[in-house]
Amino acid sequence: MKNRILSLDLAPGQAALFYLGQVGFLLKYAGRYILIDGYLTDYVDRNCCTEAVTWVRLYAPPLKPEELDFVDFVFCTHAHFDHMDPWTLAAIAKVNNKARFYGPRSVTSLLPEYGIPASAITEVRTDQAMNLGDGISFTAIPSAHEELHPDGENSYLEVGYIFTLGNLRIYHSGDCCLYDGLEERIMHMDALLLPINGRDYYRTVRKDIIGCFDSVEAITLAKNTGAGLLIPMHYDLYDVNAVNPAYFIDCLKAQSPAQSFHLFTPGEGYILSKGTIRPD
């Protein structure tokens, strides 16, 4: 997969998205590489099982973390281990001295424990745009998991990211539920990357698994905000917190049949241009 990512030629204005599993994506634009919530080990399986929940990955990571010596920017949305994986982040830091790491305080306060130097860490503030160069910028916005958790001024425990890549705008929500003001922040995105695993009493209360959008909410959000492409995520890696994507498609065809969408398989890439998307 690494060679395919590096050798992929993009026309000016195009961006490529590669799916790494769970909510992990790698973005390529203008010769730069952005990793979002890369979870490329079995850390959760080995460290997070309880009497109530046994975590077992359903498929292997499509990339090894030590292959990511080419990544320029590493983003984490929050401090849950399938989004901020200590083993993945530590492996990147060992092989890549150019990577810069971004996240809310809940993430950045832990990164030095994984061998990441303070000079490579940037704490994000919500609703403040940051320029990364080469036509790339981003804005962190709050995510509700399942509720909003403020963490000081302009800071939340969980965030999502709006990436601007040239004239493309891509929103990756991390783990998120709907809240007042979210729609206004993400109007007219070229791509929405949203979890669809939902939430219910038995997972939240009995198993301490905090939930996200369900399929109906994700589809409604895409429709209400005029999204170009809807990409569901966070439904396929762990049986204990998964949903059948066929339900997502049924809901979409009934509720918003004109909505463009794509279901990724792990390791798959897509090329996004303004108004157009195609396989790599």
Main sheet: strands, sense, barrel: 8 strands, mixed
> How much helicity do the residues have?
10-25%
Q: What is the CA-based Rg, rounded?
A: 17 Å
Give average pLDDT, whole number.
95
What's the N-to-C terminus distance? Answer: 12 Å
- Domain unit count: 1
User: Biggest sheet: strands side by side, in what order?
Assistant: 6-5-4-3-2-1-14-15
Structural class: alpha/beta
What key attributes describe this structure?
15 strands; 280 residues; alpha/beta; 8 helices; eight-stranded mixed beta sheet; Metallo-beta-lactamase, Chain A; globular; seven-stranded mixed beta sheet
Describe the 3D structure.
β12 (229-233), α8 and β13 form a beta-alpha-beta unit. The chain is built from eight helices and 15 strands. The protein has helices at 2-7, 43-47, 86-95, 105-108, 182-185, 201-206, 215-225, 245-255; strands at residues 15-21, 24-29, 32-36, 73-75, 100-103, 121-123, 129-133, 136-142, 159-165, 168-172, 191-195, 229-233, 260-261, 269-273, 276-279. The strands form two sheets. The protein has an eight-stranded mixed β-sheet with strand order 6-5-4-3-2-1-14-15. Strands 7-8-9-10-11-12-13 form a seven-stranded mixed β-sheet, with helices on one face. α7 packs across α8 (245-255). The chain has 280 residues and is α/β, with parallel strands linked by helices. The mean pLDDT is 95. It has one domain: Metallo-beta-lactamase, Chain A. 20% of the residues lie in helices and 26% in strands.
